[in-house]
TrEMBL record:
Its cofactor is Zn(2+). This is Homocysteine S-methyltransferase. Keywords: Metal-binding, Methyltransferase, Transferase, Zinc. The keyword Transcription regulation does not apply. InterPro entries: HCY_dom (IPR003726), HCY_dom_sf (IPR036589), Hcy_S-methyltransferase (IPR051486). PROSITE patterns: HCY. The lineage of its organism: Eukaryota, Sar, Stramenopiles, Ochrophyta, PX clade. Residues 12-371 form the Hcy-binding domain. SUPFAM superfamilies: Homocysteine S-methyltransferase. One of its GO terms (biological process) is methylation. Zn(2+) binds at C267, C356, C357. GO terms for molecular function: metal ion binding; S-adenosylmethionine-homocysteine S-methyltransferase activity.
């Protein structure tokens, strides 16, 4: 296992992007857009079925989110697992290939988007562009986007809505054993980040963080960064009912190598997101060391800000998921308000904002416009 000092020798791509741009835009729901393009996702493997029969549709969806303004695409591996694939007769070798394919589709979409973007705006799209107050049109300030390999919770494999309850009755060791093969397969792909998502309980968050810190004997883990994002029951509690304020200390205690760059909330109703972001920010800040002598305070504050984990938010549209019917309950979704809401979540402390289920490219474009405006980009985006 590396020490925290060794781990910091390679920079976290998400933090680097946030520091240059002032924010990061995450993508929206992958399955939502696949369905909008006509995909049938009614099987137990949900969006992962497209890895088997139509990977290029996945790539097209990633491209549409990059075009809409996403700095980070999250791969189609959320509900892909060795056990899930085995249940439909896919062996381990093929399952590994499919997990790697999920990252490759996002990486190809990113590379093609970025190549076209640079060609269309050749003068100003180097990675060193900053999004400070320089009077450049905002669209020309895009930075090369990232690919985050999705690791769905154990509940996502169960496909019974358990990721919104967290009552697995499994030990941390059992959860580690279940997650280990997929995490290793995804870590070997060279994805920029690992996105541990829709985690409903502290035990699973701990299990994932311990796994991220395992030494698997290869170089894959030497520069691995991840975020841990939880599903919440309200603005102060995980889906399991445990206090959201306990997430940051639990992660810090397990993250010996400094692998976890960000903590977040996702697939949670938008009405809970602002309070959840504030709770995460407060808990992260509370872990900061006490300040030393006054003359060193400013320097130490800057160092602490760099060490503190980022907070991210990518809520769903606010509709209810009927696990028995495997369908969204039509209601009062809030995807149409994501621009306005994103501005509030960012102001509350979320460095990266996007959407989850039922949030599409239009909402992601609104998020980008809102965050650019908050950073002084105004209306000069074309
Ligand atoms: Zn979701």
């Amino acid at each position: 296992m590396q020490t925290a000092e060794e781990a910091t020798t390679c920079a976290c791509p998400l933090r680097a992007l946030v520091e240059k741009q002032g924010f990061a835009v995450l993508d929206g729901g992958l399955a939502t857009e696949l369905e909008a393009l006509g995909a049938d996702l009614t099987s137990k493997l949900w969006s992962a079925t497209k890895l088997l029969d139509d990977p290029h549709l996945i790539k097209a969806v990633h491209r549409s989110y990059y075009e809409a303004g996403a700095d980070v695409a999250i791969t189609c591996s959320y509900q892909a697992s060795f056990q899930g694939f085995a249940s439909i007769g896919v062996d381990e070798t093929r399952a590994t290939e499919l997990l790697q394919l999920s990252v490759r589709m996002a990486a190809e979409a990113r590379d093609e988007f970025w190549s076209d973007h640079q060609r269309l705006t050749p003068a100003t799209t180097t990675a060193s562009d900053s999004c400070g107050t320089a009077p450049l049109p905002c669209r020309r300030r895009r930075l090369r986007p990232l690919v985050a390999a999705s690791v769905g919770s154990y509940g996502a494999f169960l496909a019974d809505g358990s990721e919104y309850k967290g009552n697995y009755g499994m030990t941390i060791e059992q959860l580690m054993d279940w997650h280990r093969p997929r995490l290793r397969a995804l870590a070997a792909t060279g994805a920029d980040l690992v996105a541990c998502e829709t985690v409903p309980c502290l035990a699973e968050a701990r299990a994932l963080v311990l796994l991220l810190n395992e030494d698997d004997g290869t170089a894959c883990y030497s520069c691995l960064y991840a975020w841990i994002s939880v599903s919440c029951a309200d603005g102060a509690h995980l889906a399991s009912g445990e206090a959201l304020a306990e997430l940051a200390p639990a992660v810090a205690a397990a993250d010996a190598g400094g692998r976890v760059a960000a903590l977040g909330v996702n697939c949670t109703a938008p009405r809970h997101a602002e309070a959840a972001v504030r709770a995460l920010r407060a808990a992260v800040a509370a872990l900061a060391e006490p300040l030393p002598q006054p003359q060193q305070q400013q320097q130490r504050q800057q160092q602490q800000q760099r060490r503190q984990r980022l907070v991210i938010a990518y809520p769903n549209a606010g509709e209810q998921w009927d696990a028995a019917a495997r369908a969204w309950v039509e209601g009062t979704g809030e995807a149409h308000r994501f621009g306005e809401l994103a501005a509030r979540w960012h102001a509350a402390g979320a460095a990266a904002v996007g959407g989850c289920c039922r949030v599409g490219p239009d909402a992601v474009a609104a998020v980008r416009a809102a965050l650019e405006q908050q950073h002084g980009c105004g209306d000069d985006s074309d």
